[in-house]
């Protein structure tokens, strides 16, 4: 057998059957590299077992905890605390007051019938609006008539009727 097979057995020594452990011991007597690995693993496992038995006695547990917590990286600031800081900022509050006042003035100005309204000064695309209304009316008429025309045929009829108007 080759050493990689025995290396696996060295790591799993406690889980081997008695016969497999005896085979491993006969190999260890003839292979110095596997014997060295076996001793290193055995001493490491023994050290871990000893460390498990002892529990540390902290004289000043609170001071130790404080030192440990001080060395941890600072927690990043959450979005709610960022927004809270922004909303508490006096410059931001004054800017929002000014924006609200401007919007209220524009709203009142738009409601006056004698003023030049912003919506009257901006050109509208009324023909698109009217064509869409005509299309909806024709669609409703065809739907109520229960005709089984294709969508494309309905579109052509509506298109022809809107072109003549």
A few lines on this structure:
With 165 residues, the protein is mainly α.
The amount of helix comes to over 70%
Gyration radius, rounded:
43 Å
Coarse structural class: mainly alpha
Which sequence of SSEs, written as H and E, runs from N to C?
HHHHHHHHH
Spatial separation of the terminal alpha carbons:
98 Å
Most strands sheet: none
Number of strands: 0
Uncertain regions spanning at least 5 consecutive residues = none
- Using the alpha-carbon principal axes, give the shape: elongated
What assembly state would you assign to the polypeptide chains in this entry? single chain
- Average pLDDT metric: 77
Instruction: Count the domains.
Output: 3
* Number of contiguous helices: 9
Strand content: under 5%
Write up this protein.
By secondary structure, the protein is an all-alpha fold. The protein folds into three domains: 3-53, no CATH class; 81-121, no CATH class; 126-164. It is 75% helix and 0% strand. It starts with a helix and ends with a helix.
Features:
single chain, mainly alpha, 9 helices, 165 residues, elongated
Which SSEs are present, and which pair or pack?
Elements: H1 3-11, H2 18-30, H3 32-53, H4 61-71, H5 79-88, H6 90-111, H7 118-121, H8 126-144, H9 151-164
Helix pairs in contact: 1-3, 2-3, 8-9
């Amino acid at each position: 057998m080759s050493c990689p097979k025995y290396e696996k057995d060295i790591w799993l020594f406690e889980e081997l059957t008695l016969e497999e452990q005896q085979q491993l011991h006969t190999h260890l007597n003839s292979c110095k590299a596997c014997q060295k690995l076996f001793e290193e693993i055995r001493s490491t496992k023994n050290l871990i077992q000893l460390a498990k038995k002892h529990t540390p006695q902290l004289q000043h547990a609170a001071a130790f905890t404080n030192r440990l917590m001080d060395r941890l990286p600072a927690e990043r600031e959450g979005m709610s605390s960022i927004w809270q800081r922004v909303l508490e900022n006096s410059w931001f509050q004054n800017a929002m007051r000014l924006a609200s006042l401007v919007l209220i003035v524009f709203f009142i100005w738009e409601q006056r019938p004698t003023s030049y309204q912003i919506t009257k000064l901006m050109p509208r695309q009324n023909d698109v609006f009217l064509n869409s209304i005509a299309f909806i009316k024709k669609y409703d008429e065809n739907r109520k008539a229960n005709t089984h025309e294709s969508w494309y045929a309905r579109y052509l009829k509506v298109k022809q009727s809107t072109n003549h108007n």
